[in-house]
Amino acid sequence: MELSGFSEEQLDVREAISKICSKFPDSYWAEHDESAAYPHEFHTALAKDGWIGIALPEDIGGAGLGISEATMMLQTISQSGAGMAGAQSIHANVYATQPVAKFATEEQRKRMLPKLISGQWRACFGVTEPNTGLETLKLKTRAVRCGNEYRISGQKIWISSAQVASKMILLARTTPLEKVKRPSEGLSLFFIDFAKDAQGLELRRIKKMGGRAIDSNEVFFDDYRVPVDSLIGEEGQGFRIVLHGMNAERCLLAGEALGLGFVALEKASKYARERIVFGRPIGQNQGVSHPLADAYMNLEAAKLATYHATRLYDASGKDSSINQHIVGVACNSAKYLAAEAAFSACERSVSLVIGLDITSMLIASRS
């Protein structure tokens, strides 16, 4: 990957994260994926050096950097060979905490975030539901206020890291859809204790063919009770608040996709240089080299879109001319373009080494 144009801070992040990732070789990730064991050691290593709080304020123990640097961190993790398993072990604690840091009260920020930064707590993100995966405004999980508590009922699905999380950042409807003027109203954001042995909460792990190092889950709430001070920001304004986290998520996911694509091409290019057929490397054949070059150019283009989006996201907090619509367009575009480029790069890389890959489990296939 071409590194020109990145800031000194981004390059410093890349170097520091690369050193941590070098302690976790491909074999570590292959073993954890096969055994479905969570990469606790990797999470601990990042938390030890404060990286989980990379984009959180310094006054609560964070590094005070931006989503631009956080995206570089996630790309570096993904590109190291950790893939989505390494990225997913921490990324919700980076993006889902953004709305908490921005909209929570000072007391809430100091109570909720420092232990996530230190790694003592882990959080999962509760938005997706079985029948409203893309239609966030129609989610059905309810949070009803009763005195000094909210009672939550509903279902979430595909919740990553719920097996190891002790907290959840939850989006739920506090006013029924039929009683609001606009669908975006009546949703509220909560930072809740995720007590798996508590009454009213049930967790079911989803069996997966791949990506098994990070658990995915169904979560069922049945009159699950949380205190009123779990509410982040104003009741009914949760959709506007959570977008601050979703745009950050799109940037991080774009960076992760770039990492997958670039490492796949690195492995495939190395194989193309070393594999000799009819007396010369197969990479000298245009039928091999041109598809890889095409994939590389698409990744470079997606990289520009990705880090353009991160700059807009970071600048939006200081420049009033950069509104959330502008940020949303850039972040969504970056996620789509990076995902498309990464898929093509991985597909072509696996196609090139497919015979060897079946036996040796090259990183391209896990990407």
Could you characterize what this model shows?
This protein has 367 residues and is an alpha+beta fold. It is 50% helix and 16% strand. The protein is built from twelve helices and ten strands. The strands form three sheets. It has a four-stranded mixed sheet with strand order 1-4-5-8. It has a four-stranded antiparallel sheet with strand order 2-3-7-6, with no helix packed on it. Strands 9-10 form a two-stranded antiparallel sheet. Strand 2 and strand 3 form a beta hairpin. Helix 9 (238-274) runs antiparallel to helix 10 (286-315). The chain is globular, with a radius of gyration of 21 Å. The relative contact order is 0.12.
* Helix amount: 40-55%
Find the count of extended strands (DSSP E, 2+ residues): 10
So what's the oligomer here?
Answer: single chain
End-to-end Cα distance = 17 Å
| Secondary-structure-derived class | alpha+beta
Q: How many helices in DSSP terms?
A: 12
Question: What integer value in Å does the Rg equal?
Answer: 21 Å
Q: Which blocks of ≥5 consecutive residues have pLDDT under 50?
A: 358-362
Spatial order of the strands in the main sheet? 1-4-5-8
